[in-house]
C-alpha cells in the first residue's frame, strides 16, 4: 500500500510537471506578446526612457549661470538648458533607472539644494 501511494504521487508529480512546462512554453511563444515587446522597444528608442535631475526652473539669467556653475563642478555630467514657456529649466544627467538618478541626486544636492529627479 505504501509503495502504491509513493508510485502514484511520483507519477502525478511528473504529469503536473509536464503540463506546467508545456503551459509556460505556450505563453512565451505567443507572437502577440513578442510583437508588443518589439513595439515598446521601438517606442523607447525614439521617445526615451529614464530620468534626469532638474536643478532649476525659472528666469533665464539664473538658469544660465547655474548651468555654468554645474558644468565647472561636474564636467563629466551632461547638462541641458531648456525653454518651456514661460520658464527656463536646467536639467542634468541621463539615467536609465530611478536608483541611478537618486544616487547622483544625493551627491548633487550638496551643492545645488533645489534639485529634483524627473522622468523623461
- Please provide the ordered H/E string of secondary-structure elements: HHEHEEHE
Give the N-terminus to C-terminus distance in angstroms. 66 Å
Assembly status: single chain
Strand content: 15-25%
Q: Identify the overall geometry.
A: elongated
Strand order of the largest sheet: 2-3-1-4
The total count of strands amounts to 4
Q: What class, by secondary structure content? A: alpha+beta
In helices, the fraction of residues equals 55-70%
Low-confidence stretches: none
Using only C-alpha atoms, the radius of gyration works out to: 27 Å
Question: In DSSP terms, counting alpha (H) and pi (I) runs of 4 or more, how many helices?
Answer: 4
Q: Mean pLDDT, rounded to whole units?
A: 85
Major sheet: 4 strands, antiparallel
Amino acid at each position: 500500500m505504501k509503495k502504491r501511494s509513493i508510485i502514484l504521487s511520483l507519477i502525478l508529480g511528473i504529469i503536473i510537471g509536464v503540463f506546467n512546462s508545456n503551459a509556460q512554453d505556450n505563453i512565451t511563444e505567443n507572437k502577440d506578446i513578442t510583437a508588443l515587446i518589439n513595439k515598446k522597444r521601438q517606442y523607447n528608442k525614439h521617445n526615451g526612457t529614464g530620468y534626469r535631475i532638474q536643478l532649476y526652473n525659472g528666469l533665464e539669467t539664473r538658469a544660465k549661470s547655474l548651468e555654468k556653475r554645474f558644468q565647472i563642478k561636474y564636467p563629466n555630467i551632461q547638462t541641458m538648458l531648456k525653454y518651456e514657456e514661460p520658464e527656463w529649466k536646467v536639467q542634468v544627467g541621463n539615467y536609465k533607472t530611478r536608483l541611478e538618478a537618486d544616487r547622483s541626486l544625493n551627491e548633487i544636492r550638496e551643492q545645488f539644494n533645489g534639485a529634483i529627479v524627473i522622468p523623461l
